[in-house]
Write a sequence for this structure.
């Protein structure tokens, strides 16, 4: 079983535990507010790696007329997302297949999706995102910042003994990828995240606009 399959299995197995921990987490609300302030009232949004629909639910509280499609590779996450957001649309899909979606969006959300993607896959996804966005559309990315060489298998605060493969990315890598595919950086912020073992990790949040 490869690293993606192991990670996907863990998220499907622990979907309820993930929801219990993160569904109402307010730590990133300021960044969602910043994105919402840039979007039209009836924005068409793709929530990639949507999990139980926690970001979708918050966005719909701010933009109730928005049209949101959420995708996730985990069937159990999709079940939870549908229950939590009855007015949104959800489907089971690997984020590496977004090039198959036949519509365009005002915004693409990648809320902590990139920690589970290699650099090679991110480069392809950023290119696909440029094709999926309307003119002047936005991409939202949150991830864990550190040197890529530190990537590897880890347990998480919600997964118990189940492992996930975490990829760390740097601001330099992500901004270079975005610039290469015609994006302008609107905002780049960092914030501390307290881990269960007492250590502090760094979250990186980027909003960029397609030019």
């Amino acid at each position: 079983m490869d690293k993606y399959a192991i990670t996907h299995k863990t998220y499907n197995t622990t979907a309820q535990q993930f929801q219990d921990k993160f569904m109402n987490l307010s730590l990133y609300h300021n960044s969602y507010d910043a994105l919402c302030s840039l979007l039209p009232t009836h924005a068409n949004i793709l929530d990639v790696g949507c999990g139980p629909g926690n970001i979708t639910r918050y966005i719909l509280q701010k933009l109730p007329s928005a049209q949101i499609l959420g995708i996730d590779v985990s069937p159990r996450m999709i079940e939870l997302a549908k229950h939590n957001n009855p007015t949104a649309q959800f489907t089971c899909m690997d984020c590496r297949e977004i090039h198959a979606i036949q519509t365009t969006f005002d915004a693409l959300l990648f809320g902590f999706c990139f920690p589970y993607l290699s650099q090679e896959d991110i480069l392809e996804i950023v290119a696909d995102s440029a094709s999926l966005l309307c003119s002047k559309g936005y991409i939202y990315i949150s991830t864990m910042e550190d040197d890529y060489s530190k990537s590897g298998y880890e347990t998480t605060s919600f997964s118990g003994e189940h492992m996930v493969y975490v990829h760390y990315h740097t601001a330099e890598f992500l901004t270079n990828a975005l610039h290469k595919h015609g994006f302008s950086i609107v905002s780049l912020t960092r914030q501390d995240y307290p881990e269960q073992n007492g250590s502090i990790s760094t979250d990186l949040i980027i909003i960029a606009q397609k030019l």
